Amino acid sequence: MFKLNLKIALRNLWKNKGFSLINIGGLAIGLASCMVLLLYVAYEWSYDKQFKNSDKTYVVYQNSAANGKIFSFAWTPNVMADEVAANIPGVKYAAHASYPSRKLITVGDNKISANLNFADPKFLKIFDYKFMKGNPERALRDVNTIILTESLAKKLFGNEDPINKTIKLENQDVLKVEAVIEDVPANNSITFECLAPWALFIKREAWAKDPNWGNNMCLTVVQLKDNEFLDGANTDMKGIYKRNQQGNNAEALLFPLTKWHLYDDFQNGKSVGGKIEQLKIFLLLAFCILLIACVNFMNLSTARSERRAKEVGIRKAIGSTRKSLIGQFFLESVFITLLSGVFAFILVEVSLPYFNNLLNIKLQIDYNSVTFWGTFLGLIIFTGLMAGSYPALYLSSFEPIKVLKGLKIKSDSSVSIRKVLVVVQFVFAACLIICTAVIYQQLSYVKNKPIGYNKSNLVQIAVQGKMGNRSKLELLKTQMLKSGAATGVTFFSKDITENGNNTTDVHWQGKTKGESILFNNRGIGNDFIETIGTELTAGRTLETVSKKDSNSIMLNEAAVKMMNLKNPIGAKIRYWDVEKINVGVVKDFVVESAYQKVAPMIFYPSYMDDVQVIIVRLNPNQNISSSLESIDNLIKQIEPDYPVNRKFVDESFEVKFQNEKLLGTLSNWFGGFAIFISCLGLLGLALFMAEQRKKEISIRKVLGASTANILTLLNKDFIKLVAIANLIAFPLAYIIINKWLSAFEYRVSISALPFIIAIGLSVLIAVLTVSVQSLKVAKANPVDALKYE
């Protein structure tokens, strides 16, 4: 019986090639879109879950009240790990690690800038990286040692065994390679290319020895013996700052490592979501695209009901039961879905390189994974059964006497259900059009919103090696200006597009007792205001070369407002336990998120040992490439051992919009696929309606109706369906997009434009799709339809 049904399915596919191609193509695009989205969701979901005890591993977060709200961040003091291990019940291991930074690794003439982390030995107990070579029990215990990842070991030593060989770190420390581990997976929040002992970090950075509980400078990770200790541990963690430093009102909490990547958005000390919201959107998108593809199959299958009615009648007349007919139609739909799945694989493999480049990740199909094949087969069966359910139940319900006599099949109910399905398709399509339009409006609004300085032609150069010497920096600045490659050069204590380096230890006259304000603090060089292109709204700038301004600072407008200073120039401010004088007010400019309000900032004269970047304004009258080449040569003359590390500020600024751009781009792509598949569904309904109204149209033509009249008649019904879909979609889209926008302090207002675009585009698509089929019917010879009457 199965063999017979399969033969019938194959014959039907071959007999109706056009329908078969549309069916298979629609399902293939739907399945491929669903698979790509599910691969991406699975990739993001698997973050930090590769380790044996990842479910018992936690990141220590700090909650600090300031500016009327609670700030949460995973920066902790270097004494946190030992305190947690000693005094928090249920803790198995506690370790601290630095955040990754690029360091120069040298082996002979081979020089590589690599991501390096410093960590203590317990770090390797918590994270069970696979050791390819070396002794895991001895790792990170000796100060002058280092662990390399496989790829870095290959770059440095080729095919040689790197164990016990030496490398040079930053041209200062000679370190022995004690182990090689597997490359850290890309879907890991803590990534590095090499790992060095925490003791080496303390040796290199004198400031890191400070046991001050206000010195938040590292990451602390904790592994519990069992998760039953979590509630008690978090209760004890809450007061850990107060117990160890009088007056420190910060609180600590243990946050699950496996949630760190997806739930890192905190409000008032609690996780309220994060990237998980994006994944929910993509999961919904995947399901809806698949649903639309299934609806297409239903539409196209029932559109052929007139042609298959006699087949059903004959099979019922010779003894087939309705159950066997339902089985046959289900087999056909599963078989078509299986064929579509083959084409979906091809589409996925072809499109993955593009999406990997777009997402900056490495999605791939693991053909050896039992989970993958189980999910794929489940998806095929689910899609096949769902797509075939309505055609199977509808087609198998025909009465044999009526269809064999040639009586017209009553199809009112089927038409109404089919119309409902098409409305559902276009509701989703209209929602996607509106949401995508608003996402791009928001992105454009924030990107074009003034950021307080001129980022074009502005370059940041990382200070490395000998460049950190004060006289070398001043010499480099002079040479850059003299060469004509730059019109302005200044120094900054941190990347101008990054956050961090903040404090609440600021006091002034009029400060409310117990009030806590979080200030960003930055060291600046001479000509800072002029170089970045911002404004001084009051007072004067800092003189950083001489010592006359060693006790002077500048504030930004947000700080003046937050401190409620009526006369900010000359105001005495106690900062870092030293009384300072404010000499100027700088216009607010964006350092952290472009979506949030500018934070209060304090600018102090940059001491050359804390300069991290040189900021250069390129000469607009010279060729950019030659200017950069000239600057690179000047840097290499001063520090030949390090590769020049520079980047354009506007490129760094673009990274801030990565999530929104990703959401917009994927919504655009898969929204386009959804709309295309919806058009196939509309085509299915157009075919069905044309089949049903063939004689009516022929009679109208005989009575004198023109092609335009008939096209208007046929399109009118579909435009009504699209209009109804838009009316349903508008409030749904408004609710969805309004919730998304509420996460931003700076946001675009929802205008009528996205809704006008949605209805205009959906009507245009519907008219074009339906007209393609309707035109054939309208131009057909009426004699062909009426000759048997």
Structure commentary:
This protein is of the alpha+beta class and 789 residues long. The protein is 50% helix and 19% strand. It holds the Pfam family MacB_PCD. The chain crosses the membrane at residues 21-43, 281-300, 329-352, 372-395, 416-440, 669-690, 718-737, 749-770. Residues 20-235 form the MacB-like periplasmic core domain.
Give unreliable regions as ranges: none
Distance between the termini: 40 Å
Q: What percent of the residues sit in helical stretches (DSSP H or I)? A: 40-55%
Question: Radius of gyration, rounded?
Answer: 34 Å
Report the principal-axis shape: globular
Question: What's the number of helices?
Answer: 25
* Beta-strand content: 15-25%
Q: What is the average of the pLDDT values? A: 83
